[in-house]
Structure formats: structure tokens, C-alpha cells
């Protein structure tokens, strides 16, 4: 498979890299590689990306990043206990369930899983 025309990397803005590393490490098990005081790369997320520290307010909105996890209830509890804010609680849709949350910088993401037929 070619890498041409595929999403290769994403960057998420924050004004506190340490807080973001703690949040995503705790909730999702991501690991990090620092590139100076204002940038860290994240791994173990399914797609490599980075957190970039910006001055002032973080602009939110834009595309919704959607993560996957088999246990939505446990993941939602981790998000809340690590300082995230659930913006849309778990709900069902054709083929799956998901919830949405805001991370410590205010970026909104979602977590979903498939509904499998037994």
C-alpha cells in the first residue's frame, strides 16, 4: 500500500504539553518523544502525531478526531477522572456507540466502538 494520499500525521494544539501528556498517557496509554519544550510527538495511538504548545487560547473546532476502544464505559470514566469533560455521553448509532469529550486544552474528540451481533 502506498502512503500517497493518506493521512500521515496530525497535530493537536495546547497551551500545556505536560497536562496533555498526562491526560492522553493516563486515558489511552500513549507514549511521547519530546522535541524541545514546545513540541512532543505521540505514539501508540494508531497514527503518529504531535502536541504543539501555542501562546494564548487554543483554537478548537475543525475535524473531529475519533478514537476506538472496546470498553466505552471504562474509557469515559478515565477521561473524566483525568480531567477531561464529556461533552456528549455514550450514545448508540447504527453499527456502534460513542461519546465525545474535551481534553484539557479544549480540543473535542470522540471514542467509539462497533456493535457486534452475537
Write a structural description.
This protein is of the alpha/beta class and 118 residues long. It has a single domain (10-114), classed as 2,3-Dihydroxybiphenyl 1,2-Dioxygenase, domain 1. It is built from two helices and eight strands; from the N terminus they run E-H-E-E-E-E-H-E-E-E. It has helices spanning 17-28, 72-81, and strands spanning 10-14, 31-34, 39-43, 49-53, 65-68, 85-93, 96-102, 108-114. The strands form two sheets. Strands 1-4-3-2 form a four-stranded mixed beta sheet, with helices on one face. A four-stranded mixed beta sheet has the order 5-8-7-6, with helices on one face. A hairpin with a 5-residue loop joins strand 7 and strand 8. The radius of gyration is 15 Å and the shape is globular. The model has no long low-confidence stretch (mean pLDDT 91).
Could you give a short description of this structure?
The chain is an alpha/beta fold. Helix content is 19%, strand content 39%. The model has no long low-confidence stretch (mean pLDDT 91).
DSSP helix fraction? 10-25%
Largest sheet: 4 strands, mixed
Shape: globular
Q: Could you tell me the strand content as a percent range?
A: 35-45%
CATH fold title: 2,3-Dihydroxybiphenyl 1,2-Dioxygenase, domain 1
Supply the CATH architecture. Roll
| Separation of the first and last Cα atoms | 33 Å
Assign the CATH superfamily.
Answer: 2,3-Dihydroxybiphenyl 1,2-Dioxygenase, domain 1
Amino acid at each position: 500500500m502506498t502512503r500517497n494520499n493518506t493521512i500521515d500525521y496530525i497535530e493537536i494544539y495546547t497551551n500545556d504539553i505536560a497536562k496533555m501528556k498526562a491526560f492522553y498517557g493516563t486515558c489511552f496509554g500513549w507514549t511521547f518523544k519530546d522535541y524541545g519544550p514546545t513540541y512532543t510527538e505521540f505514539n501508540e495511538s494508531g497514527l503518529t502525531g504531535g502536541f504543539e504548545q501555542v501562546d494564548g487560547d487554543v483554537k478548537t473546532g475543525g475535524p473531529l478526531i475519533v478514537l476506538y476502544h472496546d470498553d466505552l464505559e471504562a474509557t469515559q470514566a478515565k477521561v473524566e477522572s483525568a480531567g477531561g469533560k464529556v461533552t456528549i455521553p455514550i450514545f448508540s448509532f447504527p453499527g456502534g456507540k460513542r461519546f465525545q469529550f474535551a481534553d484539557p486544552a479544549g480540543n473535542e474528540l470522540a471514542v467509539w466502538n462497533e456493535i457486534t451481533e452475537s
